[in-house]
Amino acid sequence: MSERKILLRIIDVFVVLASLELVGIIFGLEYFSINERQWMWSVILAFYLLFFATVFELYNLQRASRITGSLKSAITVGSITSLFYLLTPFFTPELPDNRIQILYFYFAVTLPLLLWRAIYIKLFASARFNKNSILIVDAGEAAMVAQSLQDVDPNYDIKGYINTGPAVQSGHFVGIKELSLTDAHELFKSRKITEVVVASSEVEGITSNLYRWLIELVESGYSVREYTQVYEEMTDRIPVQYVGKDFYKYFPFARNNQNRLYKVYHRAFDIVASLLGLIFCVILIPFVLIGNICANRGRLFYMQERVGLNRKIFKIIKFRTMVRDAEKLGAQFAIKNDVRITRFGKFLRATRIDEFPQFWNILKGEMSVIGPRPEREVFVEQLSEKIPFYETRHVVKPGLTGWAQVKTKYGVTDEDHLRKLQYDLFYIKKRSVFLDMRIIVKTLSTIVFFKGQ
How far from the centroid of its chain's Cα atoms is residue 387's Cα? Predict the structure, then answer.
């Protein structure tokens, strides 16, 4: 975790707790006070705040540097944190008798967050706080690597690169200055560089002199990191388009496949969630049936073959959302504002109600609640030819929802599918109870705010 993310977390908690204590003192409200008897409630509040701030990307540095996205997330986090704190009295104080205090509490949590984040954007997200870096990379890949980092973090300033590949004629390569080892050393001596990112795919290019210099930097307290590590931390994605034949060095996808405790938890969660989901689905069927008769005019359910775990084919079941002859021209991806989707179908998709029958697939063990979304075999074959390591997403069960679904929107281009694969592989590599909970909360917010597609 970067120093800036740690700073954001610490100050978020501090300003909220300080605001509540201040409001409690000014208005004499014991509900807001932090004392020996109520200190555990403050810990619970801090936990809620940090959890929901992580879920809604308040610690995404790119989002945190933009006024609209940052303040929108701050309002969302303040609202949901207040709601959970007020509605979990077993872990938090009982609701105050004077209900106006609830409104005070909401503003005491949300307004300090908004004010602090506005100050952060004005001061700490300015150019003087940029992270200044040097790349160690082949000249032919320097522009791509630099652009990929700057696209996701506007505060990431690449001062130059040390070429580990064949020499180039110009001292500059597409706007990035090539540095000698002496040039780079002088930049560090003048304190103009804070980090070195090693992105060279050629081991032979790391000379003994360059290696010794990197060791000296580490011993002096400077950060020396590998490119894929930096990219993953900044984007929550795996850069499959870059790692090439070295993919398996960076992707230990067997980690949680061999964690028996996690596998037991995951299956138990799937069974409980699918039983609850099927009960809710049965309750919904009469209402969906009426809407289907009035607007969709066709079969209630829709079944289709999809590719699952270890490339095994299974039949997925959904509430039908498209017109009856939706694929008369052959298989095609659904797109935004797809004319084949009926008006009632748009509602079902926006609320994710169309996905509820898939809890039957989950109960049968063909799917999981969380995982990469299953695709049709014809699309899998097409995408596997175009996108490296696309088949890797089949090492886990497909999911009802997933990291790619909550992080990116619908898309049909090769670039869109590459981006989705990067998110899917990040989940497979990093999956954990905490990451699962993040996905569940973001999925629920999609349902509540009708953001489904």
Answer: 21
State how far the Cα of 195 lies from the Cα of 135, in Å rounded to an integer. Answer: 9
Contacts of 150 by beta carbon, 8 Å cutoff, 6+ apart: 156, 157, 158
Superfamily of domain 130-235 in CATH is: GTPase HflX, N-terminal domain (3.40.50.11060)
User: For residue 234, how many other CB atoms are within 10 A of its CB?
Assistant: 18
Cβ within 8 Å of residue 137, ≥6 positions away:
145, 161, 162, 163, 164, 165, 198, 199, 200, 227
What are the phi and psi torsion angles at 444 (to 5°)? -60, -40
Tens of pLDDT, residues 29-63 = 766 666 666 678 888 889 999 999 988 888 877 77
Across the strands, what pairs with 136? 162, 198
Which residues lie closer than 8 Å to 264 by C-beta, 6 or more apart? Answer: none
| Residue 371 backbone phi and psi in degrees, to 5 | 165, 180
Reported confidence tier of residue 269, pLDDT bands at 50, 70, 90: very high
Which uninterrupted H or E stretch holds 443? Answer: helix 433-448
pLDDT digits (tens, 9 = 90+) for 88-103: 877 777 777 777 888 8
Tokens 């097409």 sit on residue = 382
- Are 383 and 342 a contacting pair, CB within 8 Å? no
In the prediction, which pLDDT does 331 show?
Answer: 66
Domain spans of the chain, in order of start: 3-123, 130-235, 260-448
The number of C-alpha atoms within 13 Å of 133 and in the hemisphere containing its C-beta is 28
The Cα 435–Cα 441 span in angstroms is 10
Return the pLDDT at 266: 93
The pLDDT score that the predictor gives to residue 85 is 86
What is the Cβ-side half-sphere exposure of residue 199, based on CA atoms within 13 angstroms?
31
What pLDDT is attached to residue 285? 94
